[in-house]
Model the fold of this input.
Amino acid sequence: RYLRSLILLVVSGPLRRKMAQSVLSTMPGASTGTVVVKDPLNFWGGKRVTLGHEKNAEPVYEPATGRVMCQMVPCGAEEVDEAIKSAHSAYLIWRKMAGMERARVLLEAARIIRERRDNIAKLEVINNGKSITEALEDIDVSWHTIEYYAGLAGSLAGQHVQLPGGTFAYTRREPLGVCVGIGAWNYPFQIATWKSAPALACGNAMVFKPSPMTPVTAVILAEIYKEAGVPDGLFCVVQGGAETGTLLCHHPGVAKVSFTGSVPTGKKIMEMSSKGIKQVTLELGGKSPLIIFKDCELENAVKGALMANFLTQGQVCCNGTRVYVQRDIMPQFLEEVVKRTKTIPIGDPLLDDTRMGALISKPQLDKVLGYVSQAKKEGARVLCGGEPYIPSDPKLKGGYFMSPCVLDNCRDDMTCVKEEIFGPVMSVMPFNTEEEVIQRANNTTFGLASGVFTRDISRAHRVAENLEAGTCFINNYNISPVEVPFGGYKMSGFGRENGQVTMEYFSQLKTVIVEMGDVESLF
Ligand SMILES: NC(=O)C1=CN([C@@H]2O[C@H](COP(=O)(O)OP(=O)(O)OC[C@H]3O[C@@H](n4cnc5c(N)ncnc54)[C@H](O)[C@@H]3O)[C@@H](O)[C@H]2O)C=CC1
Ligand SMILES: C[N+](C)(C)CCCC(=O)O
Done:
């Protein structure tokens, strides 16, 4: 029901018009290269909104084929204002509801997502290019997130403080108001839930702007929230790029901006938000170190290195792309990691056996390949991959595929080791001692994540303590259960997503002081 008429499965020739069906019936059979999205992708006031114009429309590509799958029409000042007003009117109702009542609505939303996970995941794959196996996991993480914050919605509480003479004070945790979420293209649906679930649980409303490259799934989340029973306008979606984002950050009706994306854009978001003293959460990029000691369980370390580098075609902010391997085990590590990397099945992301799909766009693919050539120029050795990949299936010829790459002979001063590549490229470097590797691992302006593989438990915790990063994985990498906080140190940002603490980032504290005696006036 929720998507009736969203998507026309385009079938060639005369059948075309007759075959137009609802997405619910077409998605199960949807295949790469067939889906065209026609319906409006903006959502406020409890429904999808058709803009009265097509100004500055941008094509949205299916990464696996290079085909245009829909048009993204950006919202201008008027539309942004309408969405924020719509969110504000919903906020006035939602904030007054008991936390337990909000929880019930959120649980229903989580249930609906779980029920429709296959279809949402397929649409995510078609728009993003990642493998269906990963997308299904992303959608599962999404409903976990909503369930988790539903559980916390009833827990908002303050403190009672005793003061002399029977006087006392209490604190209340109150929502902030209308919050803005601005998302990246690597986890489109999941980012929308990471931001909206805690925001809504605390009693806020949210206006969400997805990346212009991945506009199609956020509006499905909006429909699901609506179906679950949120007041009309509580979760709005406005489409657009930098300009629309700027309008959101400057709007006086906005209390907070939660952003996921690159460092340069993060700086702009912070600057713009400062004009209105808006709170910000910034989830930015990284160039995270993964340290592998010779006493590790090698098979797990190799698997960890692959998980740290190749999820979502390497387009993950917390990836461990600087892999430091203790010199004694370097040959074995490289042999094993290269062997496994070469066998990663690349191809049609909707097929169950595929483990690596297409990068998000042609420019992104070119940028990543450019990093590989630069690395070669600077003296790195390509042990495998790093080349454009053309799958045998003819419909994938125009897709943005590349073979996953392992670089050896890397030094800390190389571009590939210093900059966030955001593609499937692992740089491997040897190290000798713990002290040395910690110093090298921390020698970066980023600080999102880090990892260590060792069987020495004291070493593991000592290294975790000394790494300057918001997360340290011990003997694994890139698992991110919703129960634990996620966020950066240094230029990787501040504020946290997930975990209990995020309730604090979406609420504010009010102090109420109650005088029980007479007023002692100085005047
Ligand atoms: N660390 C991470 O999670 C991510 C890092 N990146 C990095 O950034 C590079 C560029 O990718 P983009 O998608 O262009 O990232 P971006 O950081 O420019 O975009 C992220 C979001 O911010 C919005 N935005 C852009 N400029 C804005 C502005 N001036 N005001 C308000 N909102 C604005 C975009 O429309 C998008 O929704 C990638 O190649 C990658 O290296 C990109 C996405 C996620
Ligand atoms: C799910 N996980 C941990 C692999 C990545 C989530 C962070 C991001 O948005 O890049």
Summary: Residues 30-284 form a domain with the Aldehyde Dehydrogenase; Chain A, domain 1 fold (CATH 3.40.605.10).
